[in-house]
Amino acid sequence: MLKQRENWASKLGFILAAAGSAVGLGNIWRFPYVVGTNGGAVFVLIYLVVVFLIGYPMMVTESAIGKHTRSNPVGAFRALAPNSPWWLAGALGVFTGFVILSYYSVVAGWSLSYIFKTLFGTVGPGVDTADAFVGHITSVWPPIIWHAVFMLLTVGIIAAGIVKGIQRWVQILWPVMAVLIVLLIIRAVTLPGAGAGIAFFLAPDFSQVTGVTFLNAVSQAFFTLSLGMGVFITYGSYLKEDDNISGSAGSVVGMDTLIALLAGFVVFPAVFAMGLDPSAGAGLTFITLPAVFAEMPAGVLFGTLFFILLAVAALTSAISLLEVVAAWLIDEKGWTRGKAAAVLGVVIFVVGIPSSLGFSVWSGFSMPGVGTDLLDTYDWFANSIFLPLGGLLTAVFAGYVWGAKKVQDEANFGSGNLKVGNWLAVMIRIVIPVAILVVMIWGIVETFAG
Hints:
mainly alpha, 17 helices, 77% helix
């Protein structure tokens, strides 16, 4: 018997909300710079293989667990394996989403501030974009204020509920994202010299492949698809009994991958057209691209549109991360949705402050091999340890404890053209756990050895 629970108003509502969760800073901020620092097209190729061999089966599995139990990640694992420590796997997902949102909101705050910096010329022609960015993140209060603004927007949507909050807003924000990215691609690929950027993005060089490349591909897939952090267990719990998971998950993976690739066609043609460095790392978005916009015709317009796109994408993902933790408090502690959203918003805001201050008053922090600041360190632990580990535990649990056949039956229940076959059992019982474990160990050893 399914528990009474708020549902998505339509199948499209789930797909858009889930795709909105997947499409975020991971696609438009993180994907281009990870591609740029991992050899370009060869990373894209490995990433696509990981997305479809690991990402899709994991999304199906997590959604099936959520739909079957109608519960948050902790409650879902507890329901399927009572009186066992498996609930800790769900708790890891909740914790991971909490940690990611704390620094994700800081970066999203940067994107909000850059809408106005670009619009009013603070990072326009004649401005050293590196100095402008460093000046922003090393100041104490402006980044924290924008961090707070972004969290307020996220809390407001979560407090409104599943249909009136999450579903309503993603149905508005998705078309906005689509229009903006098409406009930006048209501008980028028509710049003189853009062809070199397209070649970098599409022509693989296999000499660039290392263990870190594979680890980054797996962590990027988990980050951008919102896997291993309880999002799809939570979102799956709001599905109706006859909603088909396998087809919906396919639509979400396809939409997310498309947006990531389109973001590459925005960034790399523009970067190469201006003769700039594609391996500029996290600064690619906030240093290199503003320099590109400053030099191109109508740069103020296109620069402003780009940072609106970045902020909108960040918001659709942030609401899913906050919903995971809020659902846990609502289900397990009996809190009202408004109280859960408000309290969590404050706590996550406070936890995120160190990752902002890591560029200013706490800039002396450094973890060798991982990062030179607190935000990089948060990001490394979340993406290289917590997310893959969460995926590994979920796959083992689904394959050996709950049962791969039950995952398959739940995923295929309801109307839908795309069905998962017996190959799903092989993937979640053998291929995915082994692949994640090998890649994690290989990548971590190379990270610290280097």
